[in-house]
């Protein structure tokens, strides 16, 4: 154990005050049930499940005695839809993440603005796209007059979050809003989750060369000391939303921006005055730098006329229609080519067919929300190999492949 790790242990390894109510075992069972719904097939989940009752009792004891410390994470790179560095926590740590979010999310939701779309129940990319479309139509009188959209992006958002500033914000918020007697235990867990630096103690599960091409501001291995949250943890997604909540209220209420929305670190403002939006850029940048230690990405400041088409969250919004962006089309085409290569020299087995079904359906499920009927038809019939099409036709279990077996269905 190195000196820094030991210092962290001495700081965190403290029992709760006698007056504090400990974390209840029922809360951990509820968190475990929520966690296993999504991660049941992973190796750490199956190992935990073999003796989950005793494991949960032991985890509860560690939390309430102050001995709990997050374990080693697994680091790897994903390439789709964009290249990202992921840190996957151990299953028992994911249970703790769900425990915290189960206790805190209702309070967060009451403080968030409506037009914050990421990692929220009933909200996501589709709502963000619909709200941007609604903002453009409202501002432009249904495209009868000129209006503009300003799109901004935060440089290296997750890797630039100050852990100390985040924890101070959480502590202030919970002391004011959280009314349960287990507040000291919840704050202790928040400390351990927020201040953890997984890059200092992780297992790398892919080649070092996989990091080639990943910008330094997208990696925890290059983050400033005391900065960065690991992408892959539930708490990181929710705490990141909370971190920008003050900025949302500043933009929406202090500045009075009627048509404002944010998805993670991508946000838009729609207005009829181009000059007003241009003057807004330094105002937003100054708030982010002064209050949150963040900066706008200088190459991702976009100010464009709405009638010419606006790209946002993987689609292009134009008057009276919405298209899929070129990057999503390219990703689907490359996925189809990978599956075609699988079927070149042998008859695909059941697993390979299931992988095809899941992969293609994920793209078709996204595309069917927008004006993509011809695109989906072309992707399937022009690019998917004839071998795959012949193989899929008699297989009733694969009829979920949208459009392949029901090409006459009209989908917007």
Q: Can you give a write-up of this model?
A:
There is one protein chain. The protein is an alpha+beta fold and 412 residues long. The chain has two domains: 15-311, no CATH class; 325-403, no CATH class. The protein is 50% helix and 11% strand. It is built from 16 helices and ten strands. The protein has helices spanning 3-12, 25-39, 43-49, 52-65, 91-111, 125-140, 157-160, 163-177, 183-195, 234-243, 245-254, 274-292, 326-342, 350-367, 373-383, 386-392, and strands at 73-78, 84-88, 148-153, 202-204, 260-263, 266-271, 302-305, 310-312, 315-318, 321-324. The strands form three sheets. Strands 5-6-3-7 form a four-stranded antiparallel beta sheet, with helices on both faces. A three-stranded mixed beta sheet has the order 2-1-4, with no helix packed on it. Mean pLDDT is 86; it is low at 1-12 and 394-412.
């Amino acid at each position: 154990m190195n000196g820094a790790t030991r210092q962290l242990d001495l700081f965190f390894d403290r029992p709760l005050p006698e007056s504090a109510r400990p974390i209840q075992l029922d809360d951990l069972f509820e968190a475990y049930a929520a966690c296993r719904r999504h991660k049941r097939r992973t190796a750490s989940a199956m190992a935990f499940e073999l003796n989950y009752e005793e494991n949960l009792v032991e985890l509860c004891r560690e939390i309430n005695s102050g001995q709990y410390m997050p374990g080693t994470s697994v680091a790897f790179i994903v390439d789709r839809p964009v290249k990202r560095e992921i840190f996957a926590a151990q299953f028992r740590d994911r249970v703790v993440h769900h425990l915290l979010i189960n206790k805190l999310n209702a309070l967060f939701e009451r403080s968030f603005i409506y037009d914050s779309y990421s990692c929220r129940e009933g909200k996501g990319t589709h709502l963000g796209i619909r709200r941007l479309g609604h903002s453009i139509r409202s501002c432009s009188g249904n495209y009868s007059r000129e209006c503009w959209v300003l799109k901004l992006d935060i440089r290296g958002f997750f890797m630039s979050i100050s852990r100390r500033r985040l924890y101070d914000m959480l502590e202030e918020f919970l002391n004011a809003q959280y009314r349960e007697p287990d507040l000291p235990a919840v704050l202790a867990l928040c400390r351990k989750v927020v201040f953890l630096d997984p890059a200092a103690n992780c297992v790398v599960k892919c080649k070092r060369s996989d990091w080639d091409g990943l910008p330094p501001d997208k990696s925890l291995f290059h983050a400033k000391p005391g900065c960065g949250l690991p992408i892959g943890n539930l708490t990181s997604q929710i705490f990141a939303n909370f971190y920008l909540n003050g900025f949302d209220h500043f933009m929406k209420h202090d500045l009075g921006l009627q048509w404002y929305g944010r998805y993670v670190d991508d946000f838009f403002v729609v207005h009829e005055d181009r000059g007003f939006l241009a003057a807004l850029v330094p105002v937003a940048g100054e708030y982010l730098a002064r209050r949150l230690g963040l900066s706008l990405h200088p190459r991702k400041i976009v100010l464009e006329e709405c009638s010419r088409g606006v790209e946002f969250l993987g689609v292009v919004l134009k008057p009276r229609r919405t298209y899929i962006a070129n990057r999503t089309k390219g990703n689907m085409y490359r996925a189809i080519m990978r599956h075609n290569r699988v079927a070149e020299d042998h008859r695909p087995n059941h697993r390979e067919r299931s992988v095809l079904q899941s992969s293609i359906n994920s793209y078709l499920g996204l595309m069917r929300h927008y004006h993509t009927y011809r695109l989906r038809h072309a992707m399937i019939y022009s690019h998917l190999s004839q071998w795959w099409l012949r193989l899929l036709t008699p297989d009733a279990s694969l009829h979920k492949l949208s459009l392949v077996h029901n090409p006459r269905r009209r989908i917007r």
